[in-house]
């Protein structure tokens, strides 16, 4: 019995009432010279054959409808700005996908106009981009395929919203999927090229078998649609193989001569001819034009460039191949139904950002035109591709054009006009054959020409990390986000649009405000990102950073801490007492620096703090009294200060810090030999009206083998006694609603497969007596903090590691 995609089956059944017949869209059906309508791929197929016996069908792409349930939490940020891979274009619908090295798979149902993250409880994306895989598409548009890091094959029957593991796909140890390939006219056939061979499914991807006729690393697979059944062409480094019986057996039809190997392979057939193309491994010759830069780049970079370069070869139906003079890098692409258009890219390993080049041939490789070169090293000064041919972004204009090539590159399998590629900063796509390239990860939200310092808004594709988000205390339209890699961003419209405000180094870690002047903002910055994750939790070494001030809402910054060996270091936190014009800055190892004159002079003020390295991840100033609270965490990696970690208090006019840590009650089930509070990461003080400042919250982060002993802690007697409210493995923030102190939000990292501990986005509305988890946002593994919207207290902002921010309802 022939397999029919669900949409096709439904349409066929409906058509019985009209024409009493339904033609299956099987690859073995001919159709003669008379066009016949069948259905598949979510739309109408026009089918006919030419005299050569090959089938040609025009597939009308299915347009997915909008789903309002995906907009409960809206993305906020500048868009993109990080490493992406696995860019994938469905040839059968409006569906696109892309993954990020921060662990999220994104889907677009409108060809990149907006993006929706796939819930982490369903699937994630591997940070190992070397093993990244694109998404596979079936002509049954609801069915798609994914393989995180190439090792865990998964299948979705709802266009990528939910996912299930494919159990009948037994990859060998170390074998990884490299790509997926569909039969456009028969949804039951699906293929997966791997590092050791080619797999096939004959039941729409439910079960899989490895084809025995070919072996070796897959370099590309092409399906040729003949009336007698589809023909498979499959390339390995050592040749091109052909099967005329749907994969039951293969014969080699092309053997490269000498030491030549195939690095990437593609093909396309139309009613005129078939064209085959591949890139070889003769990089030293094909890319000899860069030899003159060897002294500048060194042998290692030059050898990597040559290893990822080769000549483009063009072949015909007789498998006669001719080497062209065109060099190619990592990707060569054709639409399966076009024999003339070929696109070739550079490589991420190429020097001088030549890897971002994209060339196009419209005459089957006879001539080539450069269609994109993101940043041109061959002009003085260096210059980006023109704005008349490329959409610029905040990541490019404010941070830099730093991509070296494409981690992934895809072409629409049935339309050579649509293509795109991702790098470590950008996703650029074209829908007109490369004449113009969009930046679909961001949306310009300003006036005039795109330029540095302009405003942007998110399309949903967010890759940046936001440590915390703070609003100005007297102007709630102004807010600042502390970020990794980008530095930071700020909003002047309550969080709708943003512009980059980078201080000096990799990360802006924190901000403090002058409540009397909304133009003034203080910031601390540092050269090392991602605190407190992994080794970044250790006391900083070899770091740089400082304390900065802006008097124009972050348009420009002035260093106010000394730029010397004592103060040129990473700072993580800052507080400001406007009544005394005093600044407190928490360093990543040196304790607390203080200025009593608004930043003109500085000294470290560590009286009362423990000896050794002193990491200060948070400082808060009492808005009423000017009392200062500072968190001292563990002096990793030595952890010699475990008994002295916690919240320290400096009374107004005080001369020494006092630890607010008395008895820390051991939670039930925690081993008696396990020490507590090795690594606190955040705290909150009840500053609400009428508060006696006795209610404190603290969260600590699993470190130094204190397994499952961390969590959310509360004191109602100003630190004399502490009790754990909830186990939480890697919390990074705790937020107390100062207008309703019974409402508290705790956020942090979570191992979503459930194998270890607890985490995510938790909240309580009864002071911690009970806690609930917010499972609606898609980002379930990488939460960072929460900020209540001062303009609408029914809403909040969540910040994330690698996913910027989400805005939506406060969970109840």
Automatic annotation (TrEMBL):
Superkingdom, natural source: Bacteria
A biological process from GO: xyloglucan metabolic process
Region described as Disordered: spans on this chain: 25-44
UniProt keywords, alphabetically: Signal
Biased composition (Gly residues): 28-44
Signal peptide residue numbers: 1-24
Alphabetized Gene3D superfamilies for the sequence: YVTN repeat-like/Quinoprotein amine dehydrogenase
Protein name per Swiss-Prot or TrEMBL: Sortilin N-terminal domain-containing protein
Protein's organism: Bacteriovorax stolpii (Bdellovibrio stolpii)
Lineage of source species: Bacteria, Pseudomonadati, Bdellovibrionota, Bacteriovoracia, Bacteriovoracales
């Amino acid at each position: 019995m022939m397999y029919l995609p669900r949409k096709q089956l439904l349409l066929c059944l409906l058509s019985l009432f009209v024409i009493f017949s339904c033609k299956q869209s099987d690859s073995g059906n001919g159709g003669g010279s008379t066009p016949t309508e069948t259905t598949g791929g979510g739309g109408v197929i026009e089918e006919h054959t030419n005299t050569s016996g090959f089938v040609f069908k025009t597939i009308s792409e299915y347009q997915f409808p909008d789903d309002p349930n995906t907009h409960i939490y809206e993305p906020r940020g500048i868009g993109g700005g990080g490493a992406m891979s696995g860019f994938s274009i469905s040839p059968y619908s409006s569906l696109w996908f892309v993954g990020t090295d921060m662990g999220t798979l994104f889907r677009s149902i409108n060809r990149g106009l907006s993006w929706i993250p796939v819930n982490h409880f369903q699937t994630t994306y591997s940070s190992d981009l070397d093993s990244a895989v694109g998404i596979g598409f079936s002509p049954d548009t609801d069915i798609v395929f994914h393989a995180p890091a190439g090792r865990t094959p998964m299948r979705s029957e709802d266009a990528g919203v939910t996912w299930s593991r494919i159990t009948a796909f037994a990859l060998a140890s170390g074998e990884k999927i490299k790509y997926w390939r569909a039969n456009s006219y028969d949804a039951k056939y699906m293929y997966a090229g791997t590092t050791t061979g080619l797999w096939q499914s004959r039941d729409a991807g439910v079960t899989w078998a490895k084809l025995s006729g070919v072996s070796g690393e897959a370099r590309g697979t092409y399906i040729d649609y003949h009336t007698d059944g589809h023909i498979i062409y499959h390339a390995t480094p050592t040749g091109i193989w052909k099967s005329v019986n749907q994969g039951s057996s293969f014969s080699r039809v092309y053997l490269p001569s000498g030491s030549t190997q195939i690095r990437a392979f593609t093909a396309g057939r139309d009613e005129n001819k078939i064209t085959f193309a591949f890139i070889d491994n003769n990089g030293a010759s094909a890319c000899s034009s860069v030899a003159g830069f060897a002294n500048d780049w060194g042998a290692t970079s030059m050898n990597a460039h040559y290893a990822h370069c080769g000549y483009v070869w063009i072949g015909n139906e007789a498998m006669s191949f001719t080497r062209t003079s065109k060099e190619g890098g990592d990707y060569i692409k054709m639409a399966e139904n076009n024999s003339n258009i070929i696109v070739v890219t550079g490589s991420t390993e190429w020097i001088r950002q030549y890897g971002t080049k994209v060339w196009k041939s419209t005459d089957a490789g006879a001539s080539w035109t450069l269609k994109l070169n993101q940043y041109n090293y061959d002009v003085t000064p260096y210059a980006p591709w023109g704005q008349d041919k490329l959409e610029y972004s905040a990541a490019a204009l404010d941070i830099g054009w730093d991509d070296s090539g494409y981690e992934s590159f895809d072409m629409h399998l049935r339309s050579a006009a649509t293509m795109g590629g991702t790098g470590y900063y950008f996703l650029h796509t074209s829908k007109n054959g490369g004449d113009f390239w969009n930046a679909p990860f961001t949306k310009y939200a300003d006036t005039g020409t795109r330029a540095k310092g302009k405003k942007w808004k998110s399309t949903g594709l967010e890759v940046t990390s936001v440590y915390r988000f703070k609003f100005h205390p007297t102007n709630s339209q102004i807010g600042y986000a502390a970020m990794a890699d980008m530095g930071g961003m700020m909003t002047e419209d309550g969080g709708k649009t943003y512009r980059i405000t980078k201080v000096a180094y990799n990360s802006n870690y924190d901000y403090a405000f002058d409540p009397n002047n909304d133009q003034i903002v203080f910031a601390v910055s540092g050269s090392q990102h991602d605190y407190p994750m992994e080794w970044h939790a250790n006391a900083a070494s070899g770091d740089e950073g400082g304390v900065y001030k802006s008097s124009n809402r972050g348009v420009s910054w002035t260093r106010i801490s000394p730029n010397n060996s004592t103060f040129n270091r990473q700072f993580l936190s800052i507080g400001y007492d406007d009544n005394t014009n005093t600044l407190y800055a928490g360093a990543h190892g040196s304790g607390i620096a203080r200025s009593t004159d608004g930043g003109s002079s500085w000294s470290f003020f560590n009286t009362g703090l423990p000896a050794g390295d002193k990491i200060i991840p948070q400082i808060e100033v009492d808005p009423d009294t000017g009392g200062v609270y500072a968190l001292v965490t563990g002096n990793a990696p030595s952890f010699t200060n475990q008994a002295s970690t916690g919240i320290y208090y400096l009374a107004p006019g005080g001369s020494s810090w006092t630890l607010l840590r008395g008895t820390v009650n051991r939670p039930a089930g925690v081993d008696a030999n396990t020490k507590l509070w090795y690594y606190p990461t955040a705290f909150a003080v009840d500053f609400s009206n009428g508060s006696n400042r006795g209610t404190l919250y603290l969260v600590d982060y699993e470190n130094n083998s204190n397994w499952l002993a961390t969590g959310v802690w509360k004191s109602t007697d100003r630190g004399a006694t502490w009790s754990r409210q909830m186990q939480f493995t890697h919390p990074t923030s705790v937020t107390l609603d100062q207008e309703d102190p019974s409402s508290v939000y705790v956020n942090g990292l979570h191992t979503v497969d459930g194998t270890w501990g607890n985490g995510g986005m938790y909240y309580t509305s009864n002071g911690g007596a009970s806690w609930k988890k917010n499972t609606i946002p898609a980002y379930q593994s990488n939460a960072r903090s929460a900020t209540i919207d001062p303009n609408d207290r029914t809403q909040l902002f969540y910040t994330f590691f690698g996913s910027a921010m989400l805005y939506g309802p406060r969970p109840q």
